[in-house]
Amino acid sequence: MRVIYAAALLAAVSATPAFAQAFNGGNVAVVGGYDHASFGSGSGTSGSGVMYGVGVGWDIRSGNAAFGIQLEAADSTTKNCNFGPCVEAGRDLYAGLRAGGVLPSGKTLLYVLAGYSNARVSIANCCHSDLDGIRAGLGVEHQPGPHWFFGFEGRYTNYEQGFERWQGVGRVGYRF
To answer: Model pTM?
Structure first.
């Protein structure tokens, strides 16, 4: 009889899903928001539009601190057609790190981010350049349950040749 009780207890414990610790493990997210680009230092040429994309990441939580890596591929509708041919800020590839602190609720993370970005800038019907840059930003992420999260980031990227970008983006994702 004890064997049956032990087997039942073992089955119950192993069948109980573990509640994942917030901000720990892999994640995938959709991103979207406001994109403002300045197309040349001192040229006065700038434009605004909408950015959209996908991101993946991996976080490690230690106590009330979280550290992670982020990868993102995005595109944008940002362009300026006021001075001749349209200049467009296109796709943006990003790889970076983030570090932050979990608030006492255990469900909200405040973080800073920094990393490398590569953007494509195009002149309509002509040519394009891929520009390297450095991104920095601040963010907040909230994870109300074991898997889903949402957040907001404010970020600035400074590229070569005087190109720069300011973005305010929202993120909605799933943590696994």
So the answer is: 0.84
